[in-house]
Amino acid sequence: LKPGDILVTDVSTATLLLIDRATGSQTLISRGDKFLNLYGVALDKDKKIFVVDQIALGGSVFQVDLCTGAQTIVSSGGNFREPLGLAFERDGSIVTSNAPGNCGDKIIRVSPATGAQSVVSQNGFFPESFFEGPARIALAPDKSIYVSDTGDHNGSNCSGTGVGAQGRIIKVHPVTGAQTVVSQGQNLLEPYGIAMEDNCHAVVADPRAKKVVRVNMCTGEQTVVASGLDPWLSSVSPGAIAVDPDGSLLVNVPGGILRL
Protein backbone atom coordinates (compact mmCIF):
# COMPACT_ATOMS: atom_id res chain seq x y z
CA LEU A 1 0.00 0.00 0.00
CA LYS A 2 1.19 3.49 -0.85
CA PRO A 3 0.59 6.52 1.38
CA GLY A 4 -2.83 7.89 0.52
CA ASP A 5 -4.20 4.71 -1.06
CA ILE A 6 -7.92 4.35 -0.35
CA LEU A 7 -9.62 1.17 0.82
CA VAL A 8 -13.36 0.94 0.20
CA THR A 9 -15.96 -1.69 1.09
CA ASP A 10 -18.98 -2.06 -1.18
CA VAL A 11 -21.95 -3.39 0.78
CA SER A 12 -24.06 -4.22 -2.27
CA THR A 13 -21.43 -6.50 -3.84
CA ALA A 14 -19.57 -7.68 -0.70
CA THR A 15 -16.38 -6.31 -2.23
CA LEU A 16 -13.17 -4.77 -0.90
CA LEU A 17 -11.49 -2.36 -3.32
CA LEU A 18 -8.23 -0.44 -3.46
CA ILE A 19 -8.41 3.00 -5.11
CA ASP A 20 -5.39 4.94 -6.30
CA ARG A 21 -5.78 8.47 -4.94
CA ALA A 22 -3.96 10.03 -7.90
CA THR A 23 -5.68 8.27 -10.81
CA GLY A 24 -8.91 6.99 -9.26
CA SER A 25 -8.22 3.53 -10.70
CA GLN A 26 -9.78 0.61 -8.84
CA THR A 27 -8.19 -2.72 -7.94
CA LEU A 28 -10.25 -5.63 -6.65
CA ILE A 29 -8.77 -7.07 -3.45
CA SER A 30 -11.45 -9.54 -2.35
CA ARG A 31 -15.08 -10.32 -3.09
CA GLY A 32 -17.75 -12.78 -1.94
CA ASP A 33 -16.59 -16.07 -0.41
CA LYS A 34 -17.16 -15.52 3.33
CA PHE A 35 -18.15 -11.88 2.80
CA LEU A 36 -21.87 -11.08 2.95
CA ASN A 37 -22.33 -7.48 4.12
CA LEU A 38 -19.09 -5.52 4.47
CA TYR A 39 -18.86 -2.23 6.34
CA GLY A 40 -15.86 -0.90 8.27
CA VAL A 41 -12.27 -1.30 7.05
CA ALA A 42 -9.04 -0.38 8.84
CA LEU A 43 -5.29 -1.02 8.81
CA ASP A 44 -3.26 -2.17 11.77
CA LYS A 45 0.19 -0.73 12.52
CA ASP A 46 1.76 -3.22 10.08
CA LYS A 47 -0.67 -2.13 7.32
CA LYS A 48 -2.56 -5.41 7.41
CA ILE A 49 -6.16 -5.02 6.24
CA PHE A 50 -9.10 -5.80 8.50
CA VAL A 51 -12.81 -5.54 7.66
CA VAL A 52 -16.03 -6.02 9.57
CA ASP A 53 -19.00 -7.92 8.13
CA GLN A 54 -22.39 -7.22 9.67
CA ILE A 55 -23.95 -10.60 8.83
CA ALA A 56 -21.32 -13.25 8.09
CA LEU A 57 -21.09 -15.89 10.83
CA GLY A 58 -23.26 -13.79 13.15
CA GLY A 59 -21.11 -10.71 12.63
CA SER A 60 -17.38 -10.99 11.98
CA VAL A 61 -14.00 -9.33 11.75
CA PHE A 62 -11.78 -10.62 8.94
CA GLN A 63 -8.16 -10.09 8.01
CA VAL A 64 -7.70 -9.81 4.25
CA ASP A 65 -4.50 -10.56 2.36
CA LEU A 66 -3.70 -7.64 0.03
CA CYS A 67 -2.02 -9.83 -2.58
CA THR A 68 -4.27 -12.90 -2.68
CA GLY A 69 -7.57 -11.57 -1.28
CA ALA A 70 -7.66 -14.50 1.16
CA GLN A 71 -10.13 -13.94 4.01
CA THR A 72 -9.17 -15.08 7.50
CA ILE A 73 -11.67 -15.00 10.36
CA VAL A 74 -10.32 -13.04 13.33
CA SER A 75 -13.45 -13.12 15.48
CA SER A 76 -17.13 -13.90 14.89
CA GLY A 77 -20.42 -14.38 16.71
CA GLY A 78 -20.19 -14.05 20.48
CA ASN A 79 -21.00 -10.48 21.53
CA PHE A 80 -21.24 -9.27 17.94
CA ARG A 81 -24.66 -8.06 16.84
CA GLU A 82 -24.60 -6.26 13.49
CA PRO A 83 -21.10 -4.75 13.79
CA LEU A 84 -20.50 -1.64 11.67
CA GLY A 85 -17.48 0.42 12.67
CA LEU A 86 -13.90 -0.75 13.04
CA ALA A 87 -10.78 0.95 14.40
CA PHE A 88 -7.43 0.07 15.96
CA GLU A 89 -6.19 1.21 19.35
CA ARG A 90 -2.55 2.01 19.96
CA ASP A 91 -1.87 -1.38 21.54
CA GLY A 92 -3.21 -3.13 18.44
CA SER A 93 -6.62 -4.04 19.86
CA ILE A 94 -9.65 -3.71 17.59
CA VAL A 95 -12.76 -1.81 18.64
CA THR A 96 -16.07 -2.28 16.84
CA SER A 97 -19.47 -0.62 17.07
CA ASN A 98 -22.57 -2.83 17.15
CA ALA A 99 -26.06 -1.49 16.53
CA PRO A 100 -28.73 -4.22 16.61
CA GLY A 101 -31.31 -2.01 18.34
CA ASN A 102 -33.59 -3.25 21.11
CA CYS A 103 -31.22 -1.70 23.66
CA GLY A 104 -28.42 -4.06 22.59
CA ASP A 105 -26.08 -1.41 21.16
CA LYS A 106 -22.49 -1.77 22.35
CA ILE A 107 -18.80 -1.18 21.70
CA ILE A 108 -16.68 -4.33 21.67
CA ARG A 109 -12.91 -4.75 21.92
CA VAL A 110 -11.31 -7.66 20.05
CA SER A 111 -7.86 -9.19 20.32
CA PRO A 112 -6.56 -9.63 16.75
CA ALA A 113 -4.26 -12.39 17.98
CA THR A 114 -6.84 -14.58 19.74
CA GLY A 115 -10.21 -13.24 18.61
CA ALA A 116 -11.27 -12.82 22.23
CA GLN A 117 -14.06 -10.27 22.69
CA SER A 118 -14.78 -7.97 25.62
CA VAL A 119 -17.56 -5.40 25.96
CA VAL A 120 -16.18 -1.89 26.42
CA SER A 121 -19.51 -0.09 26.76
CA GLN A 122 -23.20 -0.76 26.23
CA ASN A 123 -26.58 0.55 27.22
CA GLY A 124 -27.26 -0.19 30.87
CA PHE A 125 -23.61 -0.06 31.95
CA PHE A 126 -24.17 3.27 33.69
CA PRO A 127 -27.05 5.43 34.91
CA GLU A 128 -26.46 7.51 31.77
CA SER A 129 -26.17 5.55 28.53
CA PHE A 130 -26.77 7.24 25.21
CA PHE A 131 -26.47 4.69 22.41
CA GLU A 132 -29.40 4.79 19.99
CA GLY A 133 -27.65 3.54 16.87
CA PRO A 134 -23.82 3.64 17.09
CA ALA A 135 -22.44 3.70 13.55
CA ARG A 136 -18.73 4.38 13.10
CA ILE A 137 -15.76 4.76 15.46
CA ALA A 138 -12.81 7.14 15.54
CA LEU A 139 -9.92 7.07 17.99
CA ALA A 140 -8.24 10.26 19.18
CA PRO A 141 -4.47 10.49 19.75
CA ASP A 142 -5.21 10.63 23.50
CA LYS A 143 -6.88 7.15 23.21
CA SER A 144 -10.43 8.46 23.62
CA ILE A 145 -13.08 6.56 21.63
CA TYR A 146 -15.59 8.65 19.69
CA VAL A 147 -18.74 7.15 18.23
CA SER A 148 -21.13 8.61 15.67
CA ASP A 149 -24.64 7.69 16.78
CA THR A 150 -27.49 7.99 14.29
CA GLY A 151 -30.18 8.14 16.97
CA ASP A 152 -32.37 6.18 14.55
CA HIS A 153 -33.71 3.52 16.90
CA ASN A 154 -36.97 5.45 17.07
CA GLY A 155 -36.00 7.26 20.23
CA SER A 156 -36.27 3.99 22.15
CA ASN A 157 -34.51 5.71 25.06
CA CYS A 158 -33.18 2.41 26.37
CA SER A 159 -31.38 4.01 29.28
CA GLY A 160 -34.15 6.34 30.40
CA THR A 161 -32.03 9.43 29.85
CA GLY A 162 -34.69 11.15 27.77
CA VAL A 163 -32.25 12.04 25.00
CA GLY A 164 -34.60 10.61 22.37
CA ALA A 165 -34.06 10.21 18.63
CA GLN A 166 -31.46 12.70 17.46
CA GLY A 167 -28.01 12.35 16.01
CA ARG A 168 -25.09 12.75 18.37
CA ILE A 169 -21.39 12.18 18.89
CA ILE A 170 -20.57 10.13 21.99
CA LYS A 171 -17.24 9.91 23.79
CA VAL A 172 -16.54 6.52 25.34
CA HIS A 173 -13.88 6.09 28.01
CA PRO A 174 -11.57 3.30 26.79
CA VAL A 175 -11.17 1.77 30.27
CA THR A 176 -14.41 2.38 32.17
CA GLY A 177 -16.75 2.52 29.16
CA ALA A 178 -18.45 5.66 30.51
CA GLN A 179 -20.42 7.50 27.83
CA THR A 180 -20.54 11.28 27.40
CA VAL A 181 -22.51 13.15 24.74
CA VAL A 182 -20.10 15.58 23.10
CA SER A 183 -22.45 17.18 20.57
CA GLN A 184 -25.98 16.46 19.35
CA GLY A 185 -28.78 17.74 17.17
CA GLN A 186 -28.34 21.02 15.24
CA ASN A 187 -26.55 19.96 12.04
CA LEU A 188 -26.43 16.31 13.07
CA LEU A 189 -29.51 14.41 11.95
CA GLU A 190 -28.10 10.90 11.43
CA PRO A 191 -24.31 11.20 11.66
CA TYR A 192 -22.53 8.22 10.16
CA GLY A 193 -18.90 8.55 9.09
CA ILE A 194 -16.44 10.05 11.57
CA ALA A 195 -12.71 10.74 11.44
CA MET A 196 -10.40 12.52 13.85
CA GLU A 197 -8.28 15.46 12.73
CA ASP A 198 -6.64 15.92 16.14
CA ASN A 199 -7.49 15.43 19.82
CA CYS A 200 -10.18 18.10 19.75
CA HIS A 201 -11.61 18.02 16.24
CA ALA A 202 -13.44 15.44 14.15
CA VAL A 203 -15.19 15.55 10.79
CA VAL A 204 -18.56 13.84 10.51
CA ALA A 205 -20.52 12.81 7.42
CA ASP A 206 -24.29 12.91 7.79
CA PRO A 207 -26.18 11.24 4.90
CA ARG A 208 -29.61 12.44 6.01
CA ALA A 209 -28.54 16.05 6.46
CA LYS A 210 -26.37 15.83 3.31
CA LYS A 211 -23.64 17.59 5.23
CA VAL A 212 -20.07 17.21 6.35
CA VAL A 213 -19.70 18.78 9.77
CA ARG A 214 -16.61 19.56 11.82
CA VAL A 215 -17.18 18.99 15.53
CA ASN A 216 -15.03 20.45 18.29
CA MET A 217 -14.79 17.52 20.69
CA CYS A 218 -13.72 19.83 23.52
CA THR A 219 -16.66 22.24 23.27
CA GLY A 220 -19.27 20.45 21.13
CA GLU A 221 -19.33 23.32 18.64
CA GLN A 222 -20.39 22.35 15.11
CA THR A 223 -19.18 23.94 11.87
CA VAL A 224 -20.57 22.95 8.46
CA VAL A 225 -17.75 22.08 6.06
CA ALA A 226 -19.97 21.17 3.10
CA SER A 227 -23.71 20.85 2.64
CA GLY A 228 -26.42 19.89 0.17
CA LEU A 229 -26.32 23.45 -1.16
CA ASP A 230 -22.89 22.71 -2.61
CA PRO A 231 -22.78 21.08 -6.06
CA TRP A 232 -21.00 17.90 -4.92
CA LEU A 233 -23.60 17.09 -2.26
CA SER A 234 -26.74 18.30 -4.01
CA SER A 235 -27.97 14.83 -4.97
CA VAL A 236 -25.86 12.36 -2.98
CA SER A 237 -25.58 11.41 0.67
CA PRO A 238 -22.15 11.27 2.32
CA GLY A 239 -21.32 8.08 4.21
CA ALA A 240 -17.88 7.05 5.45
CA ILE A 241 -15.23 9.77 5.76
CA ALA A 242 -11.45 9.88 6.13
CA VAL A 243 -8.74 12.52 6.45
CA ASP A 244 -6.18 12.33 3.64
CA PRO A 245 -2.47 12.75 4.49
CA ASP A 246 -2.58 16.14 2.73
CA GLY A 247 -5.38 17.30 5.06
CA SER A 248 -8.21 17.09 2.54
CA LEU A 249 -11.32 15.05 3.28
CA LEU A 250 -12.32 11.87 1.44
CA VAL A 251 -16.04 11.17 1.55
CA ASN A 252 -17.72 7.98 0.41
CA VAL A 253 -20.92 8.66 -1.51
CA PRO A 254 -23.11 6.29 -3.55
CA GLY A 255 -21.06 5.37 -6.58
CA GLY A 256 -17.83 7.13 -5.74
CA ILE A 257 -15.40 9.01 -3.52
CA LEU A 258 -15.40 12.81 -3.18
CA ARG A 259 -12.42 14.92 -2.15
CA LEU A 260 -13.32 18.05 -0.20
Explained architecture:
The structure is a single chain. With 260 residues, the chain is mainly β. It is built from no helices and 22 strands. The protein has strands at 6-10, 15-19, 26-31, 38-43, 49-53, 60-64, 71-76, 83-88, 94-98, 106-110, 117-122, 134-139, 145-149, 168-172, 179-184, 193-198, 201-206, 211-216, 222-226, 241-243, 249-253, 256-259. A four-stranded antiparallel sheet has the order 4-5-6-7, with no helix packed on it. Strands 8-9-10-11 form a four-stranded antiparallel sheet, with no helix packed on it. The protein is globular. It starts with 5 loop residues before the first strand and ends with a strand.
Outline: globular
Assembly type of the chains comes to single chain
Mean pLDDT: 88
Give the number of helices.
Answer: 0
Q: Outline the biggest β-sheet.
A: 4 strands, antiparallel
What descriptors fit this protein?
single chain, 260 residues, mainly beta, four-stranded antiparallel sheet, 0% helix
Summed up:
The protein is mostly beta strands.
Secondary-structure topology with pairs:
Blueprint lengths: L5 E5 L4 E5 L6 E6 L6 E6 L5 E5 L6 E5 L6 E6 L6 E6 L5 E5 L7 E5 L6 E6 L11 E6 L5 E5 L18 E5 L6 E6 L8 E6 L2 E6 L4 E6 L5 E5 L14 E3 L5 E5 L2 E4 L1
